[in-house]
From TrEMBL:
Residues 66-75 have a biased composition (Polar residues). PANTHER family: DLEC1 DELETED IN LUNG AND ESOPHAGEAL CANCER 1 (PTHR23053), HYDROCEPHALUS-INDUCING PROTEIN HOMOLOG (PTHR23053:SF0). Transmembrane segments: none annotated. GO terms for cellular component: axoneme. Residues 55-86 are annotated as: Disordered. This is HYDIN protein. GO terms for biological process: axonemal central apparatus assembly; cilium movement.
């Protein structure tokens, strides 16, 4: 009896690469940008988008030294954000969908909307957590 298996991990691409900049906007206006998450592997994978904690750069440094992904370290300590029906609301930004599954060689368009509210700069950091990476 011949038995074989092939161990693989999730392969993906994210376009455009970070950062996403909406530029200057008139107060009260809305702009939309699209991020494409593509599965370049042979297995389905699930993704979840969540907000990074305020100390994300500290976690990234620690996790890289300990061999753990910053995303999984952040997942355990992420602060609360508003997420309903596939939408994630972070200040002036709305992200949808914020979770899902992508088949091999498939892709998911993720919509990032910015509704310019109060004057000043608004900046948020998002993490895309992909299973089996």
């Amino acid at each position: 009896v011949r038995v074989s298996a092939k161990a693989v991990y999730s392969k993906y691409s994210i376009e455009p690469a970070s950062p996403i900049n909406f530029g200057a906007m008139m107060k009260g206006t809305k702009k939309t940008q699209i991020v494409v998450l593509e599965n370049k592997g042979v297995l389905n994978f699930k993704f979840r988008i969540h907000q990074a904690p305020q100390d994300a750069s500290v976690l990234e440094d620690k996790s890289s030294k300990q061999g753990e992904s910053a995303t999984s370290a952040t997942k355990r300590s992420a602060r609360k954000e508003s997420s309903t029906q596939g939408h994630l609301n972070l200040g002036m930004f709305t992200v949808s969908p914020c979770s899902g599954s992508i088949a091999p060689w498939g892709q998911q368009k993720i919509i990032v909307e910015c509704l310019a509210g109060q004057e000043g700069t608004c900046e948020e950091q998002l993490y895309i957590d992909i299973t089996g990476r």
